[in-house]
Amino acid sequence: MSTAAFPEGFVWGVSTSAYQIEGATSAGGRGRSIWDTFSADRAEACDHYHRYRDDVRLMKDLGIAAYRFSVSWPRIFPGGSGEPNEAGLDFYDRLVDALLEAGVTPYATLYHWDLPQALEDAGGWPERETAHRFADYAAAVAARLGDRVDTWFTVNEPWVAAFLGYGSGIHAPGRTSPADAFRAAHHLLLAHGLGTQALRAAGAAKVGGVLNISPVLTPGQVGDPGRPLSEEDAEAVGRIDALVNRQFLDPMLRGSYPAELLPIVERTAGLGHLRDGDLELIAQPIDLLGVNYYTPLVVQAQPSEPADPAYPGSEGVLFCTVPTAVTAMGWPIVPGCLSLALRRLAAEFPGTDLMITENGADFVDVVTGDGIHDVERVSFIEEHLRAVRVAVQEGVPVRGYLVWSLLDNLEWADGYQRKFGLVHVDFATQRRRLKDSALWYRDVIRRGGLLESRPKRPTLETVAARAGVSRATVSRVVNGEASVRPEVRETVLLAIKELAYVPNAAARSLVTRSTNSVALVLSVPRQGGDQLTAAVVQYVTSVLEGAGKQITLMLADTAESHRRIVQHVEARLVDGVVLLPPDRGDTLAERLSRTGVPVVLLGKPAIASLVPYVDVDNAGGAAAATEHLLAGGRSRIGMITGPLDLIAMQDRLAGHRDAMRRAGRQPLLAPAELTRSSGAAATRRLLGDDPALDAVFAATDQLALGALQAAREAGRRVPEDLAVVGFDDVDAASAVVPGLTTVRVPAAEQALALARLLLSRLEGRHTESVVLPARLVVRGSA
Ligand code: FCB
To answer: Is the Cβ atom of 163 under 6 angstroms away from ligand 1?
Structure first.
């Protein structure tokens, strides 16, 4: 089989960062970083500080050519300034020597988000001084490692550090000030410029910066990037692109800020922090631009939408979810956008060498006796490498590709649950295990590229030939028929296992004559970042595919699409339908139920007997939340209800009412739409109606986040003056300060129950709806 080769000298590598893997947070005189303060997780991470030799050996065995690691600033300057800490530098000395000895080229990143806490205490990135401290730090590290490290990166993803750290507050240091976020962004750029100068002065051979590059598209452009846009959508796309990509690209590579950005900065933060000469400093010539790519940003114009805190200036823009496959993070998988991003960078910044400094994916891994078969990660990386190759063949100067990440690690605010590694880490024992993706990557490196065509999947015929039986016998085994003799069954099962055969539609339908297809019908969520939908798409797809079903994703967004879906199902092109979430009026669920094809639903429909469904106990969860507030001595509890045409919202209100009635109290209600700003407005109304209000129960976390904001603005301390409880347990709930007490909706369990419910229905078994318990998660807010 021929190889889809990459250019001679193309660098194959992996990336990590200090805080995410090192652990040993007080060894060798290391100081405190903002992440030690911010994170609730144990900080041992992968204990790489002590196990670096083993990890270097792993890289050597895999044939890794380059390793991008980051230096922990608080190891070098524990107090942020003064004299560098020799013991800290010694560690990187040892690491670099071990790498060179193993034939792995070290690439050092200086800032991967672990600011010394002392510098945050002095004002952090919103203060200009921090950029100067960074230059001192760069000089100290380069003075020690510069004789052996050729390639240096200054800052990693300054957008994330500035806007998640100081804007939305979901990253350390957890501040939520749009003005600080813009100031931080500018000073991170300044740090890049000053740091580049310091590295050059120390004789560094190659210097670059690393940016998170996310192509910005409308939902319609995801499958069709050339699709023309309305004026409003074009403006929304351009504005978000300026905030996320060009805010950093343009100063670094052109010495200017994008024109549409400056008015946003000015009205949010003023322009006092931009000084004459800064842009020249920032635009130091660089040798390499590091591109971190994971997923595109999908947006559209939506006049009423408030700004997202991570994107100050994004008023009137809706961040959308798209019905593509997603990783376990819920990030849409769109490899074509990587080609798009690279093509664009080459066109706009000709002459800049590029390197993919991060690309990879979080998927749920299963450790089995014979390995970790992370097929999804393999295909993610493979598809993205193909996208890189497309760009390379067009002449884009991409010099290398580094997988994020070598090891499963501590994924910032998300903790240890995220699995990005090629190598599995058991955090109880620190044992490392190679996943299939690591072995696959090793082969790619050996070969210098991908296989031109993917190896053919084994077919029913191959299994029959291997087992020495007929195709019909194989298909009878696959379909679990009893008529096969046990010895024959065993031989067939062994062949299936050895060949890693996945029964496909054709094999199953040999006996069942079914289509083996299942429609997964999504209605477009009105809010971006819908974790439940993402989980359902992921788990339902993997469970049903594992059972040999093919999934057809169908989008139910217009009356016309409803008609087409019903037709498709009526024509028996699918065996079953998973519908989520039900449209508000339930007409689609009802029409589908009349086709006679098994249908299951996420969320209780208006007529509960219509179709079997999976839901959580919304009423029970709301009652538990309310009882928690009552038990904590709160007596004047207001509830922000969501839109009451949604059944879940009706149930949450009913649960709250019941609990209040049992306690002999009158409910105090404020209706709201499902947005954060609407939650804030409702809270202001509640506080206006009852100034002695001491608690708010919000029907969703988004509303509760709005309540926290309104409480802060009204000068109420949470939880002392006002307790706040939400519902859903979205990611942001654990990341805000104080953490939000909320009711957890078990997304994965719902998804699994939904898939199982459909499978039982397809097998013709009697099925009943499933209602899962919703559990109260107590954090600081109540
Ligand atoms: C990037 C970060 C990296 C890791 C991946 C998943 O934004 O640079 O540390 O968190 O995302």
So the answer is: no
